[in-house]
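User: Reviewer 2 asked us to show a designed sequence for the structure in our supplementary figure. I'm pasting the structure tokens here. Could you produce the per-position amino acids so we can include them in the response letter?
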């Protein structure tokens, strides 16, 4: 009986040791499986990198004019509406010119009379001059004829000036477009008194507002630190929130080399073609000026750069590589030293990654 109990006890001990050893072995087997860090990768490639500076500015039309006559008068007719496109030289509006027409007729008649009197006076002067040279008339008689001729000349000049003034008043009573554009505002109504000097009660100073925004200008304020990088003729891009999927291409046209005394910034003008009139004056946009361009240089996405190092993936192992960088844009950075074209580098999963860690590529790496 005692032998059976002893044997049973030994068997229980042996079984317990076996179970414990099996658990230990299973635990060791589980811990021996190494962790693979999931990463997204991309390839080092050659591309064009642009160094840029960005600014916010107000969009303005390349040309803007308030249509106003050079003389005062009652507005007789407006021929265009707001939103209408017009051509240079097109008649937009007219003042009541009936009284001007009467003055013009009177001035023409006076001019013809003065012209006829001048011709008669000249003929008489030439005839008397010949007689005077032949001593057929006295000097007093000739002087009288000469004064009459000079008076006729003066009267003719006055009549011509009066005719020119009347014609000018008739011409400027008709308001024409100074350039191609779009009517954006109507300032007066037919029957209003228009006074370009705003001199009278109830009078208006302008009739219409015309804009040409087939080209847009954007003035930007540039700091002292950045102004030396900006030059006339540099490429510029314009982006507006109302058209998020389009970037307009233009250039720097004016660089003011004198700083504003109040803001200590420099005014720089950029211009952009706007043939479809999608860009609207009075709105804001972001102007990006390209200050430097490098073509066919090695570059990587900025997400793959961790301070001055990049993780390169070879045979499933991430190797930390120190690099020397150059210029950069919003998405990419130039690599001067440390990487070769075509190498795989980690784009996502960089944070927390250790040198020579084993990784699992979950995205990227295509050729």
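Assistant: Here is a per-position design you can include in the supplement:
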């Amino acid at each position: 009986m005692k032998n059976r109990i002893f044997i049973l006890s030994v068997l229980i001990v042996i079984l317990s040791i076996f179970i414990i050893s099996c658990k230990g072995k299973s635990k060791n087997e589980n811990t021996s499986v190494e962790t693979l860090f999931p990463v997204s990768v991309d390839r080092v490639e050659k591309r064009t990198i642009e160094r840029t500076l960005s600014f916010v500015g107000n969009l303005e039309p390349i040309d803007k004019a308030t249509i106003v006559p050079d003389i005062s008068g009652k507005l007789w007719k407006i021929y265009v509406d707001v939103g209408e496109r017009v051509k240079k030289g097109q008649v937009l509006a007219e003042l009541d010119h009936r009284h001007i027409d009467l003055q013009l007729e009177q001035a023409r008649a006076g001019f013809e009379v003065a012209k006829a009197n001048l011709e008669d006076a000249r003929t008489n002067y030439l005839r008397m001059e010949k007689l005077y040279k032949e001593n057929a008339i006295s000097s007093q008689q000739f002087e009288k004829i000469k004064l009459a001729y000079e008076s006729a000349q003066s009267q003719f000049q006055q009549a011509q000036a009066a005719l020119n003034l009347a014609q000018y008043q008739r011409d400027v009573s008709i308001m024409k477009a100074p350039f191609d554009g779009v009517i954006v505002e109507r300032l007066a109504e037919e029957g209003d008194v228009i006074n370009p000097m705003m001199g009278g009660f109830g009078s208006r100073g302008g009739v219409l507002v015309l804009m040409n925004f087939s080209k847009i200008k954007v003035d930007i304020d540039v700091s002292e630190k950045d102004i030396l990088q900006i030059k006339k003729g540099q490429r510029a891009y314009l982006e507006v929130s109302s058209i998020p999927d389009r970037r307009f291409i233009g250039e720097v046209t004016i660089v003011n080399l004198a700083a504003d005394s109040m803001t200590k910034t420099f005014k720089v003008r950029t211009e952009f073609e706007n043939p479809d009139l999608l860009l609207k004056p009075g709105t804001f946009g972001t102007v990006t000026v390209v200050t430097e361009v490098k073509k066919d240089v090695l570059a990587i996405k900025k997400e793959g750069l961790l301070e001055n190092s990049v993780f390169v993936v070879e045979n499933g192992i991430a190797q930390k590589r120190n690099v020397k960088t150059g210029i950069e844009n919003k998405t990419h950075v130039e690599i001067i030293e440390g990487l070769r074209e075509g190498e795989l580098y980690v784009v996502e999963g960089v944070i927390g990654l250790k040198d020579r860690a084993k990784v699992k590529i979950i995205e990227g790496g295509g050729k």
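For the response letter, you might also mention the following. Residues 25-32 have pLDDT under 50 and may be disordered. The chain is about 30% helix and 40% strand.
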